[in-house]
Design goal:
Thrombin, subunit H; alpha+beta; elongated
């Protein structure tokens, strides 16, 4: 290669280096000049900025469209992949549910047949009224609520009170337009329950804390945290099977239960009448006593003779 092309290439490289250097310096000088101009005449700089924005906005819009198209395409691809995965999961869930549906139908038919053979008497279907919690009359020594329903609405003492199918308590006092609910956490609350899959009998006893305890369990009873608690129906106050809570802790000679109810979130409650009286029912009416007719002297004389010592 001759010396002349080499010298030309060397000169071109030198000129390029000087151009880059002076371009950098020129940009710094231009920036400084614009800053000084902005301090001197802010209105002029603002107009110049707006004109530059108007001139470059269409160019930027055209340049950004391919990027937007690519971004939208990528998002659609991700959405389609997510929909495909979700569709696969839904198919698997549907297959499992169909299996359980078959099992449930078979068990339902078997259960109905066995009930018919045993002449099973089903639990009574209760009627209910829904009432709003108007006051939390409880405190450190009592856990109770006040409802906006009373005797005029069919509410009576002893009726169970539930929220979202979980037991809250029972009606402890009722007036014409209101009723007081004794919560299951109250110190005076005692509820017969079943514990866990073995359906061990126990009494859920409130103690004015958020975690009532189980008492009167059989010595050989095995209870574990997480076991479900439901009403047993004994004593005839509550029907069997109303969910109450789960076993929270076992130890130190006591078993604590976490109720399903959240006292601070109770707003509307259902008061259910199952037609049960149980231990809260009144004594049976006394049989009428025959009174002798005073107009008959023989009966009066007979009664007097029977009472003489």
């Amino acid at each position: 290669m001759s010396e002349r092309p080499r010298s030309e290439l060397r000169a071109a490289g030198t000129l390029r280096a000087y151009a880059h250097r002076f371009a950098y310096i020129g940009l710094i000088v231009a920036a400084g000049a614009l800053m000084m101009l902005g301090k001197a005449d802010a209105v002029l700089v603002e107009k110049l900025r707006l004109r530059i924005i108007d001139a470059t906005a269409p160019i930027l819009d055209v340049l950004s469209r391919p990027v937007d198209v690519v971004t939208h395409t990528v998002e659609q691809a991700h959405d389609w992949m997510a929909i495909h995965d979700e569709n696969e999961r839904l198919r698997e869930d549907r297959a499992r549910l169909m299996q359980w549906q078959t099992v449930a139908r078979r068990l339902e038919a078997e259960n109905a047949a066995l009930k018919q053979l045993l002449h099973f008497v089903p639990e009574p279907e209760g009627r209910f009224v829904t009432a709003r919690v108007v006051a939390d009359s409880g405190g450190a020594f009592a856990h109770s609520l006040l409802l906006s329903a009373g005797l005029r609405d069919g509410v009576d003492k002893g009726h169970p009170v539930v929220s979202d199918e979980a037991l809250v308590g029972r009606i402890a006092g009722v007036a014409r337009h209101s009723a007081r609910v004794l919560l299951i956490t109250d110190l005076n609350s005692r509820i017969p329950v079943f514990v866990g899959p073995t359906r061990t009998r126990a009494i859920l006893a409130g103690d004015n804390t958020s975690r009532p305890k189980l008492v009167y369990l059989a010595p050989e009873a095995v209870v574990s945290p997480g076991d479900l608690i439901a009403t047993s129906g004994h004593a005839g106050v509550f029907p069997s099977g109303i969910p109450v809570g789960i076993v929270n802790s076992v130890g130190d000679g006591e078993i604590r239960v976490k109720p399903y109810l959240e006292r601070e979130r109770l707003e509307y409650l259902r008061v259910i009448d199952y037609g049960l009286t149980g231990i809260l029912g009144g004594p049976p009416a006394a049989a009428p006593v025959a009174v002798p007719n005073a107009a008959d002297p023989k009966e009066v004389a007979g009664s007097q003779e029977g009472t003489e010592p």
